[in-house]
Design goal:
It is a single chain. With about 450 residues, the protein is α/β, with parallel strands linked by helices. It folds into two domains: about 110 residues, Urease, subunit C, domain 1 (Roll); about 325 residues, TIM Barrel, CATH 3.20.20.140. About 30% of the residues lie in helices and about 25% in strands. The chain has 13 helices and 19 strands. A hairpin with a 2-residue loop joins strand 2 and strand 3. It is globular and about 75 Å long. The two termini are about 35 Å apart. It binds N-(aminocarbonyl)-beta-alanine and zinc ion (2 copies).
């Protein structure tokens, strides 16, 4: 079906203008100040978007849908994840394949098969948890299969995620550079965390989770991986930057010419560790932990100043009941939902701060991640000839985020009661409406795996 969206304000990263946009099949066919419906095929649906913004489909570049972890599985599997994403204007997610099998390519294929029920498009990062003989060939094969980025951890030694040896890690970085793979890092220094834990005299409440994994651990790990990237003259992508100290480390590295790409999440921007003191504190436990108001402010300023390239959510949802099973931070399932709330939260912050335009927001949640992960311009743009992933967004609509107005199977939102301005009214995936006027129309299995170009 062809669709003409008339009279909207189109917002791309490069420009904002009042234009009509004609979608033919799955592609954006034409953008012009005024397109006459009578010139188009008679079957064309005309959508009047007066007063609305027309955005490229949002990309959540950091999700864990259906994550099997700690003997359970997260609440939002691929169908639930696709559904809540469509409500949030998200048409693409970049999820993550664990390094589970002897060969990376097998881990990748397993995850790709698992993700077949997705109703929106998806790309994958491949986790790499250990160095092995012949790893370059393995990286070559996942690159050929469409992986654009690998993900490494500087912590979680206890569960086997940490590559401890610097030379081995550097060798993986070098191979990734040569093959055009982005290296993404969950940056927390395991040694600092282990030492604190070893001499810990405190308790294990949700608030203690933040004391056991301080911001200094993040900063140290960023300096460490930034040092390796600097020696190899390659970029490094820091996922879920959470603290002022981490940001200072990023600034320091950039000052030395290191190409650091920084991603943060809505929760590190807008939520702080005081939530962990509440009786329902476990709901707000994730890793890295929530920090102080001062850390929120530092990241907000960095966002405004253009020091952060991507906002993504680290959506990793457990049910309300699962989260509250234990008050012991060593047992609380870590992670929160967030994909659906991202755009309205950022838009509200943009308006209230008066310092972040919708064009900048589009860059942070669509164009930026598309460019980082080799998906641009097919994704992340409003260019003619590219995928018609389109969001109709009402910038004036006020509403309250709550468990009733959001769609995660977790049964809760970390932003309960937050009043926001800006609402997604319609989400098109490759020209097909997947959410319109509050009704989900996504189709199981309709999502496509996106092969990354060079990142
Ligand atoms: O607590 C979190 N963030 N869980 C998801 C896995 C990760 O480390 O990003
Ligand atoms: Zn992480
Ligand atoms: Zn994550």
């Amino acid at each position: 079906m062809d669709v003409l969206i008339k009279n909207g304000l189109l917002v791309d990263t490069e420009w904002t203008r009042h234009s009509d946009i004609f979608i033919s099949g799955s592609k954006i066919s034409r953008i012009a100040p005024s397109i006459d419906p009578s010139e188009l095929p008679a079957s064309t649906t005309v959508v009047y978007a007066d007063g609305l913004c027309v955005l490229p489909g949002i990309i959540d570049a950091h999700t864990h849908y259906h994550l099997v972890s700690r003997g359970t599985v997260t609440a939002d599997s691929f169908e639930e994840g696709s559904r809540l994403a469509a409500y949030g204007g998200v048409t693409t997610v970049v999820d993550f394949a664990d390094d589970r099998r002897p060969l990376l390519i097998d881990s990748f294929h397993d995850r790709r098969k698992e993700m077949a029920p997705m109703a929106i498009d998806y790309a994958l990062h491949q986790g790499v948890y250990r160095y092995r003989e012949g790893i370059r060939k393995e990286l070559e094969s996942i690159r050929r299969a469409g992986i654009g980025a690998i993900k490494i951890f500087t912590t979680y030694k206890d569960v086997g995620y940490l590559i401890d040896d610097r030379d081995e890690l550097k060798s993986i970085f070098r191979d990734a550079r040569d093959l055009g793979l982005m290296v993404c890092v969950h940056a927390e220094d395991d040694k600092i965390i282990t030492e604190i834990a070893a001499s810990w005299k405190g308790g294990y409440t949700p608030a203690d989770h933040a004391r056991l994994r301080p911001a200094e651990a993040e900063a140290a790990a960023i300096r460490y991986v930034g040092g390796i990237a600097g020696e190899l003259d390659m970029p490094v992508y820091i996922v879920h930057l959470s603290s002022r100290a981490g940001l200072e480390a990023v600034r320091e590295l950039r000052g030395h010419g290191v190409k650091v790409i920084a991603e943060t999440t809505p929760h590190y921007l807008f939520l702080d560790s005081s939530l962990l003191d509440r009786p329902d504190g476990p709901l707000y436990v994730m890793t890295p932990p929530l920090r102080s108001r001062d850390d929120n402010k530092a990241l907000q300023e960095a966002l405004i100043n253009g020091e952060i390239q991507v906002v993504a959510t680290d959506h990793c949802s457990f049910t309300y009941e699962q989260k509250l099973e234990s008050n012991d931070c060593r047992r609380i399932y870590p992670g929160i939902p967030g994909t659906e709330e991202m755009l309205p939260l950022l838009h509200t912050f943009g308006i209230s701060s008066g310092a972040l335009t919708l064009q900048q927001i589009v860059n942070l949640v669509s164009t930026g991640p598309a460019k980082c992960f080799g998906l641009y311009p097919e994704k992340g743009s409003l260019l003619e000839g590219t995928d018609a992933d389109i969001v109709l967004f009402d910038p004036a609509a006020s509403w309250t985020i709550s468990r009733e107005t959001t769609h995660s199977a977790s049964g809760y939102t970390a932003y309960e009661g937050t009043e926001v301005t800006g609402k997604v009214l319609m989400t098109y995936l490759r020209g097909r409406l997947v959410m319109g006027d509050g009704i989900y129309l996504g189709m199981k299995g309709d999502g496509r795996f996106l092969r990354a170009r060079k990142c």
